[in-house]
Amino acid sequence: MLKYLNTSITFLITLLCSSNLVAQEKFEKESRIKRQDVPSNAVQFIDSLVLKNRVKWFLEEGLERKSIEAKFKNKKKRYSIEFDTLGNVEDVEIEINWKELRTQLKDSIYFRLKKDCLKHKIVKVQIQFSGNQPDLLSKLKTTETIPNLTTKYEVIVKCSSKNSVDLFEYLFSDAGQPLSISKIIFKNSSHLEY
Amino acid sequence: MNTKKSAIIIIIVCLQFLNTVSAQNTYQFGALPSLNLNRKLKKDWSINTKIESRQLLQSGEFNGNADKVYKYVLTDFSLISAKKVGLNSRIAGGYLIRFREGKLVHRFIQQYIIVQRLNAFRLAHRFLGDQTFSTNEKPEFRFRYRITSEIPLNGESVDSGEFYLKINNEYLNSFQDADYDLEIRLVPLLGYDINDNIKIELGLDYRVNSFLNNNTRHSFWTSLNFFVEI
After folding, report:
1. pLDDT higher than 80, residue B7
2. Is B229 an interface residue toward A (CB < 8 Å)?
């Protein structure tokens, strides 16, 4: 009973807090950069993980800010670690399976998607941790829960509406509350079609 | 399919082509510039118009005589309208008119395209049917499949001011009267994204056909493509 009450409250909060969220369009330009062009703080952070796989470095340029991203695979999972341009770690994203989410969280996300889309399909889920550098480093080295970290979920969803099918990036809080919605704008593909 | 598998397939196809080139066969060499204009319309519709011209610079037999006289061959004008039918797919249909040696050739085109966005590159599959009619030849019906990969040379996607590698591989099944022929095309191109609305590509358009009836013809066209969003 308590479980259902909890879920209902989450749904209600989700509904009340998110009704004004409007999808923004997402523009990002990313380009590959060499390890030697990455701030030393960021390189040291990645080196301290002692990874077996290759790390790819990218410069991401959004409309308002730039960041540096390290991408790699570790234990069959894709990792993406974002740094500011000075090399301070900002967040860690790990690609996970939809099934790995807590039932209550899945219900909240599902509830929101059902409201927004006639039909939807979850394409990708990433768990996102943000906090201070030692805590993020600990999170990357162990599977244990680190209490001071903020956890969010980035969900890429194929969403069918009455007139079109589009891809959206939703960001949910740990409680399943939607924080932002971005419509992913595809790059032109006419040179691949004709 | 990962990059390694794609590379293996490309190498196998190249080896096959090299094998056929070594036989006593004919070839053509020339230029194939094209201009593509695309416009997005309302309600997921779009329109593409293309002008393509073919110029012959040299032809002949491998290990035989070569004709090095420049010859203008043909010009194609096409108009295709397309409708997005899924997140990554589009159906399209249109008409092409060909001006060749003072005669007109008419072609009707239907196509279905899926563009896959993978982690480090894009892959497009094109299924195309066309019907060609002219006064001096019997109608020709073709069923074509083309796979195109776009590999960014900087980062995980092609942004403005960046180069990319584009590789087309197409298989064309042609039925004309009682004859069947298979043409294979391999087109490696180096592309440059000037801004999100203009792209330039330069490369080689290699075509091989008539190899099923031991009369293999190889065509090597220098391809220069402009893609403009208007």
Report:
1. no
2. yes
Rg (CA), chain A: 18
The answer to whether residue A1 scores a pLDDT higher than 70 is no
**Half-sphere exposure of residue B115, counting CA atoms within 13 Å on the CB side?**
21
**Which of B87, B153, B162, B194 would best serve as a mutation to test chain A binding (most A beta carbons within 10 A)?**
B87
Nearest to B158 among A163, A187, A190 (CB): A187
**ipTM here:** 0.85
Q: What is the mean pLDDT of chain B?
A: 89
Domains of chain A (ranges, CATH numbers): 2-186 (3.10.450.360)
Question: CA-nearest residue of chain B to A165?
Answer: B87
Return the half-sphere exposure (C-beta side, CA atoms, 13 A cut-off) of residue B170. Answer: 26
Percentage of residues in chain A with pLDDT exceeding 90? 55
Q: Does B122 touch chain A (CB under 8 A)?
A: yes
Looking at the complex, does the CB of residue B225 fall below 8 Å from at least one CB of chain A? yes
The domains located in chain B, with CATH, are 3-229 (2.40.160.40)
Q: Are strands B89-100 and B198-209 parallel, antiparallel or unpaired?
A: unpaired
Q: What pTM value is reported for the model?
A: 0.79
